[in-house]
Amino acid sequence: MKVLELLILLTLLVAVGYVVLKLTLAVLKWLAVNAITGLLLIGILNFLGITHIQLNLINFLIIAVGGVVGVFILILLSLI
């Protein structure tokens, strides 16, 4: 009976670990796509001279979490 309980525990631990890993990778993929999209948009806008937003850690985090919406928030904040 002890072996069966241990086997069930290990199976559940593997299942929980798989779900946690899958969710973590999904969130990281979402952040990477948002960051790349936002950085491309900021680069184009800075190159065209429409806005001049510096890329520092705070701005990068806003872009990574917000994506295109984060870029527009930074543009609005730079106009104030």
UniProtKB/TrEMBL annotation:
Keywords from the UniProt entry: Membrane, Transmembrane, Transmembrane helix
Residues spanning the membrane: 27-50, 57-79
Keyword Membrane listed: yes
Protein name from the UniProt record: SigmaK-factor processing regulatory BofA
Organism from which the protein derives: Thermococcus gorgonarius
